[in-house]
């Protein structure tokens, strides 16, 4: 039986006023299928977000962690497969940090794989009438940083916690002045998250 | 005072099982802001759809006609500006007709402009938090055919009826196996149509 | 027998340093298949470019006119089908003019069709191993303005001159900092123009 | 002083008749800047291509290995950053093999980073007037398989050989019937490879 799920979103960054991941997390119910849902919003900061996700896992002791982030320009919600031991960006995080090929954990694994059933999640989202895809790169910005550190912590501590990351497209209101950029409604994003959680619990905890 | 609005959608065509324009029309209310909404679903047929739209305008005597169609692959709902006196396609309509540079009305104007306030509609859809764009081509398939014949009829008869056309993206369920193809939720499409009607009535009939 | 062809390009506009249409015209040979090629570069100016194209047709008396322009963001070279009697833009031309739904020729036809064999041109470009498409909108900026006025002049004067317009993608060097924007090499663009001229002469003048 | 470079391409696969990587390799000179260029064309086969690349490195003892592959649908040539220890595909290789989350080297590193100066290569390709990008995923098909095994072999043997992978867009002739799919000319692809080799030799071997 799963008892607790941790879902996280990010604050807006760059020139954006909203972040779909924050809005989805805040709009999500506090329990889902009898499981307690713990929510947190992470800052778009290499210096702070990594420590926060590790502290959250330590404090909350969730059975499942699903971090959400914005992938502006992607057409489908992306269930991420892999987190890479590298920060690299040509744009600043919200602290002004622009990492240049910076290793996240010195001596850490070059990459970790998601422990969510990513293909089943994609299959079930599609069965709900929504598009989705497995993605083989979560980028090298703060999203990948948080994803890597969550998987690294769980691996090093030998925890059974399942950890995954989902990248969301822009919301419709974000693309009003970005002709040609794809978007997804908030309602549909909530469905994506519900299916991701339900599929994961069903596989590992037979609720 | 406007009394009647005619909205039309199309049946599915090609390999599609659904047509967003049909679903939007069927889901729309029967009155909107005190105005009666008359609905019709047109066949994707050069031979039949043109006659149907003309008969509908003649019978219903609407103040406003908004025809809707599917533009699979477009990212934003497109408020069409112009209808052209030509049918041309490399794919068949639902009767198997593949017109090759066929004039719609011999001796008719080469093109007609929409009589909706297309820029105001786009501005107001954006103010509703949704993307939209003016489009300068409705293609040369059955959508443009119906759009041209509606404008031609109104022009030749000297009617005050306002006529426009809106192309809709795919629905989410249509792109599940079309990676990279943009989509819009049905709810958001209904908002698009509401704003288009409201903006038009407000401009010409001061409701 | 065709004796003279007029090809025109445009100067750079907006933030661009180059215009592929200018580079193609300047790099083109002065004779092609025994036909004299007259070249001109038009300013991106509603006030000046229309008068220039009309003066050029009057002075040069070409058998064929092919105007070229940049359509940044399009993937394939576009053989334009139709010119519309309207200027409309949300960006300024090089004189700072931003037309708002301005009719080009008061009382003129709402639209004119290209007199080039547009489908044959696309077919022959593809047979040369390059992509191409017929386009149903040349936009409503200076390109369409010039295209409309050339067709209008030829129509009003009853000339046999064949008139067409080709929109070109960006050159590779223009997209270096525009990730995701398609491009075509200058060499391939020259082939596109050669095939367009050859196909037109072959059809109408049997060279 | 570098003495030998190994460049590899792949045969066509799926419904394609050509593979840009094969054409670039075959069209490349046999020496470049005084360095011998050894060429090989690999089969699109999980079973055979990995063994071939390892045998080639063992036999040729190259200073630099650059493998090339087709990434149909990508707009810019992609200098790959990372190879992942996983084969996964929903399409078959040329032997009919469709791997489902299959580890390449049991107990091997989860990922290896390219040893080419990938950012310098992108910078220098752009300085040559062509677009390019660093990519964070080489997919999980035969390209990634070969890339991973080359890096694994070099790592395990402790060789100084520099290993990288470049994904190429479609050639123009491949997209004639794929409207909207980006493409790059063969000439420009040859420049991309020259710059990649030159930048690598210059950095590590000061030619």
Describe the structure concisely:
The structure is a homotetramer of 207-residue chains. The termini of chain A are close together.
How would you explain this protein's 3D organization?
The structure is a homotetramer of 207-residue chains. By secondary structure, chain A is of the alpha/beta class. Helix content of chain A is 33%, strand content 21%. Chain A is built from five helices and nine strands. Chain A has helices at 20-27, 46-60, 118-127, 142-157, 186-205; strands at 4-10, 31-32, 35-42, 64-70, 78-80, 82-84, 111-113, 133-135, 162-168. Chain A has a seven-stranded mixed sheet, with helices on both faces. A two-stranded antiparallel ribbon of chain A has the order 6-7. In chain A, a hairpin with a 2-residue loop joins strand 2 (31-32) and strand 3 (35-42). In chain A, helix 3 packs across helix 5. Chains in contact: A-B, A-D, B-C, C-D. Chains A and B meet through loops of A and loops of B.
Layout: helices, strands, pairs:
The structure is a homotetramer of 207-residue chains.
Chain A: E1 4-10, H1 20-27, E2 31-32, E3 35-42, H2 46-60, E4 64-70, E5 78-80, E6 82-84, E7 111-113, H3 118-127, E8 133-135, H4 142-157, E9 162-168, H5 186-205
Parallel strand pairs in A: 1-3, 1-4, 4-9, 5-8
Antiparallel strand pairs in A: 2-3, 5-9, 6-7
Instruction: Give the spatial strand order of the biggest sheet of chain A.
Output: 2-3-1-4-9-5-8
Helical segment count of chain A:
5
Biggest interface and residues each: A-B, 22 and 22 residues
**Number of extended strands of chain A:** 9
Uncertain runs of chain A with pLDDT below 50, 5 residues or more? none
Oligomer: homotetramer
What shape does the CA trace of chain A take?
globular
State the distance separating the first and last CA atoms of chain A.
6 Å
Helix content of chain A: 25-40%
Structural class of chain A: alpha/beta
Query: Mean pLDDT of chain A, nearest integer?
Result: 97
């Amino acid at each position: 039986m799963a008892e607790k799920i941790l879902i996280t979103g990010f604050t807006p960054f760059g020139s954006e006023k909203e972040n779909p991941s924050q809005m989805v997390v805040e709009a999500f119910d506090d329990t889902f299928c009898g499981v307690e849902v713990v929510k947190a919003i992470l800052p778009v900061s290499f210096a702070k977000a990594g420590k926060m996700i590790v502290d959250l896992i330590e404090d909350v002791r969730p059975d499942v962690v699903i971090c959400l982030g914005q992938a502006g320009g992607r057409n489908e919600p992306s269930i991420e497969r892999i987190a890479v031991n590298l920060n690299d960006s040509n744009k600043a995080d919200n602290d002004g940090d622009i990492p240049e090929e910076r290793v996240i954990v010195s001596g850490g694994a070059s990459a970790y794989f998601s422990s969510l059933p990513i293909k089943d999640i994609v299959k079930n989202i599609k069965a709900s009438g929504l598009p989705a895809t497995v993605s083989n790169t979560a980028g090298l910005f703060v999203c990948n940083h948080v994803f890597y550190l969550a998987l690294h912590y769980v691996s090093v501590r030998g925890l059974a916690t399942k950890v995954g990351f989902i990248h969301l497209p822009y919301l419709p209101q974000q693309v009003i002045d970005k002709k040609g950029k794809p978007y997804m409604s908030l309602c549909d994003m909530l469905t994506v998250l519900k299916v991701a959680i339900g599929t994961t619990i069903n596989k590992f905890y037979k609720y």
